[in-house]
Fold these 2 entries.
Entry 1:
Amino acid sequence: MKKALTIAAGIVFWLIVWQIVAVAVNSDILLVSPLDVIKRLCELVITADFWFSILFSAGRIMLGFFLGLVTGTAIAVLSGKFRIVRVIFSPLISVMKSIPVASFTILALFWINSENLSVLVTFLICTPIVCSNMQAGIDSLDVKLEEMSRVFKIPAWRRFSGVYLSQLMPYFRSASALAIGLSWKSGAAAEVIGIPDGSIGEKLFMSKIYLETADLFAWTTAVILLSLLCEKLFLLIIGILQKKIERM
Amino acid sequence: MPEALNICKSYGDKIVLDNFSYNFAEGKITAVVGQSGCGKTTLLSILMGLTQADSGKLIGFDKPISAVFQEDRLCENLTVSANIRLVTGKRYTKADIENELCKVGLDGCAGKPVRELSGGMKRRTAIVRAMLAQSEILFLDEPFKGLDSETKQSVIEYVREKSAGKTVIFVTHDREECEMLAEDMVELSL
């Protein structure tokens, strides 16, 4: 409760700062007030077009995230098991982490249509993040617990659920939280460049063309809220699954 | 009869075990005693198959084994009960495990995460886990470390009762513990 109040107080503080600056600037094109943004968001929320765009973008961005999560985890696990896999993928992962989203996006536009651009870009952004985090987790696995498992001849599934899972979950959770946030950032950026019809990116692009700053802020707020919602929901599901697996 | 023949182990220039040979009495408790650094834990690790000896031969150690390690080697995020079930599977009911825990003074601790336990409680959890695991040979490395004298007495009784009929190889530097539990003894020197 106290934590929630502290967070709420922080948000209210910055909203007040934003409102004061918006009043001082006094230009709806340069900076709209938070009240205008909330009003515009309320107007958008009741339209079918808003929800279509949300579903269009969220579906593709989360698909890219899940593909990145699975691929990144698989590469990390195989790298931990086989040194040759680490040697092969290590430079690729390092390069992928450094390439700007815009470069990925422009290159991807040559390969696939703009509709599925955000899936590929999100996948390419998530994979190295998840892989690096999971590799750090695998590298820090307790050797002594591994020896204990060997002495007691703990079967593979129980070894996974009891010994490895509890040690790797903190890394998996932090990788997932980071990857979801970046998925929305990179996915929306890719859509702004590719401008697929009906996407959030298209709406952001149009707000720039028509100087609709309230729209830009409203859609940005929607992206932030969706990103937070996806993160909390995913971590909640992961937590429940972990408990279920550990009880098996 | 489990037998170690001419076991040698060195770490760099330091010779830890030099032609160690011993017949461990089957179904009995053998104490391995000696000063700190004389190679007791290394010997146990070799006998458990965790460390490769430089030379020598092991006979009769290819049976199910169980151990109390020098460190507790428990999964800190799991409960006491989950740590035990990790090695026993579903062979014991919740009530069986609670009953065993009561015998070493861990009443009501089954559902507690291990990270919330004191050092002595973790030690006793590791002991119960080792006693309930299916095994024919039991390795105990300083198993009563960190237990107060009263608790130690009851835990020694518990270990004696649960390990009856098993071959127990028990490392200690405490002569009193050795006298209380061991039926045979081998001394390592520096």
Note: Chain B touches chain A through 21 residues (CB under 8 Å).
Entry 2:
Amino acid sequence: MSKTITIDGKTIPFEDGQTIMDAAMTADIYIPHLCHQPEFTPHGSCKLCTVNVNGRNCTACTFPAMDGQEVLSETQELIDDRKKITQMLFVEGNHFCMSCEKTGNCQLQAVAYHLNMLDNHFPLFYPDRKVDASHAEVMIDHNRCIFCTLCVRASQQTDGKNVFALSGRGIHKHLIVNAESGLLKDTDVDVNDQAVHVCPTGAILVKRTGYQVPIGERIYDHQQIDQVALASERPKHGK
Amino acid sequence: MKQFIQGIVENNHQATPLLQMLRQIQSRFHYIPEEAIEQLSGLLNMPRTQIVSVIEFYSFFHLTPRGQYELLISDSITDHMLGKKDLLGYLENKLAVAVGKVRSDGLVSLNNTSCTGMCDQGPAGLVNGYALTHLDHSSIDKIAALINQQKPLSEWPSELFQVDDNIHKSGLLLNQQIEQGAALTAVLKRGIKETLAEIDTSGLRGRGGAGFKTAMKWQFCSEEQQTERYVVCNADEGEPGTFKDRVLLNSYADQVFEGMTVCATIIGAKQGFLYLRGEYLHLHDKLQNILQQRRRNGLLGINILDAGWSFDIEICLGAGAYICGEESALIESLEGKAGIPRNRPPYPVTQGYLGKPTVVNNVETFLAAAGIAVNGGNWFAGIGTEKSKGTKILSISGDCARPGIYEYPFGVTVQTILHDCGADDVLGVQVGGPSGMFISDQEFERKLAFEDLATGGSFIIFNTSRNILDMVHNFTHFFAHESCGFCTPCRVGTSLLQKQMDKIVDGHGSAGDVVVLEELCQLVKNYSHCGLGQTAANPILTTLERYPGLYQSRLKEISYEPGFDLDGALETARRMANRDDAGAHLAQIEVNEHE
Amino acid sequence: MANKIRVATTSLAGCFGCHMSFLDIDERMLQLVEVVEFDRSPLTDIEHCTNCDIGLIEGGVCNSENVHVLREFRNNCKILVAVGACAINGGLPAMRNHIPLEECLSEAYLDGVGVENPQIPNDIELPLLLDQVYPIHEVVKIDYFLPGCPPSADVFWKFLTDLIEGREPSLPYELVHYD
């Protein structure tokens, strides 16, 4: 007999080695997430995928599925708190969507839309962060980085490089690149690297492509992130 | 420099040496120069990003030069209670350097640092990593003169660096002076399994505060398939108000190492580590000598006691990061990385250091284990309470006549402790450090025990002249400073808590702000990745529960007011426009505005 | 209709784009004015608001005058609404927030390229700039937020009709945009 867990009362099967996120996505159940993509080692830092497992909060993307677990995901409390965690991500950076090329294709924004986030709730930090436009084809706008490490992991795990890393501590956390100058142009990054394309926000952008699709016709303008994520990530959630 | 770094790398025999190498470079050059990063990157075959991220994680490493004399002053609440703020101002004056700056001649720099573990003999500080105690105007005058004369630390008067044990009450553990090797001989005699059974009988639970059963942890580890296993002693005693491990390592180190070796025989480990917080650099050489002596006496190394056991212990120094007291962050740090807590499961007993089964225990736990190995489980289990066996060693500081180390059987009441250490007119006690809880004068009949007041040992006393909100403010800033920044709720949440506390303490809080504060506390507590974030709101939550009126009294009665100083926000513009008319000012709350 | 719902609007540190978008409700405006009358607003010439039901605030708070206007709205409107990105997070004007005000003013009036007769404007009629641009909810209590740069005409319509018809306002997915 195959092993099962329940998510919000719905019984779903899983295979050994799968996380709760793997099992959920395979069963067509969306759990909000930003730092997780199925092709990379789970990180568990954004905390949006927090679910309640047998009374305890865990991150679905890192916590192993175990037979008989009762998982709660879409409770009002979790939904409200996910919204607040998203608001935290908004206030710690400088997220001015109206002037961002990624708007409409941005997962941070899409999760916020999905959670019906209408304000920032918390006081804004307005940190002083830089833009690195040194590279001919790729740019980094540090104002928009949410420290998900997807670019770090993609560079290591897919591209076989070490272009990106997170440095610093606490609220001073920041993205660094592998060059003495600290500039992207002096790294071995290539515009075709997966690391360049995996950013869930507008922090890493490919130059001269931002407005190929007009605002209003972009991914999340008419489609919610749950549907988009299930369609694009589900096939990759093997084990 | 090239030769120096080449030398460090070649002479380093440690398994994962990055942190230790960076310590040496920082100590020599007072920062980590770019050339050093390049060279290390090449020699260690490590991306420079990895090195930079370690440097930028730890408080004691710097990418820009610090003074040849780097002065850090402990920012623990206990230092504040002893007049730290005034001393810092005095230091700034005497040394002609501002806090956070390097003097223009590069000779000296001054800054704050998290609690240095000298709460019983503060105000305290560090000079080039070495502990300074009992700072006052006269010692500062001396220090300033020595610095200006550029005297090497070795020529400074030793009383500046004197660290006392201050043991005021000894019990089961502090009274026993077991002979070197006695515990291991007992294991050899009794048998390994039988010794584990004695530890089980003793009921010993981890002394770091979490209280996991020690025998169970050791057994789990010994049952792992992987045979390469490690013992780690957590001496990263960073919880403000805790200093017992400093004393245990100063005066009972042999027994601590013996306890680690007992653990190694039981779990089958060949290598152990003592992770010593960087603030205890002054203990380093002494501990190395003890290890060396144990090796000479056949108690460490190959074929210990001719029993065929092989085990050795290496000391790794931390570099200023409270989070490394969390066991998985400590392991990351041992591996030469930033101290970011791992995802669990897997737990360290199955995948710890280098992914191998690892036991991590507190200094005091190993000390107790050595005693139990010699005296048997009942010796320990015979005292304490049903659920909390044995004794607990407390670090007592704050408002009392005799701050220092006290050992009590579990179950002792707060009242008894307060009496013993000479505390009068007590407002309340912070038990377990900032991550623990504040108890009020209505709760002094409560008992220290896992089932009532669990504590890693920090016990800070506040008398009625103290302002609780100052304490909460200090603790909240501490957590924001020490958050590793890995997860959103802690990284952003501790900074938001800091802002919200500042707002209330600065008098800009309004009626709704306590609700906002409490909601934020719950969010940080319930969603953070590790113990740091999960407890970072405790100072606020435990005082809010006990003294709601205190918070309310700081709030304006109006329903809302700006969270910042409105008139202050006009200051720059006012100054630049050289204006001071009525229109150049704003009232914080609206008073008779004529529109 | 005897008791029309009174609505006031203003733009603080904003571009009036939100007002323009509001006007994009086009012919629905005729339906709206059946039940709504405008008090202080760029759409009327009323200078101060009195006893309004709804206040719509566009733009963030960048100077002392913004604070006074915002307070007038808060004092006179039962429901105060942050309209658009600038009111909610400071928006484009807030992109100066990471630059110290002293540098901004120096660049603009003292030592920037092309500055002639350098001096900081100091007429007492001029409102002084705040050190940062603040979202309006950091200065007064705000009851509702309508995101968007600008919020679309449909957002205004949905929100106002919800309120007017006594429903708790809510925005469906299609209407929530930050751009």
Note: Chain C touches chain A through 30 residues (CB under 8 Å).
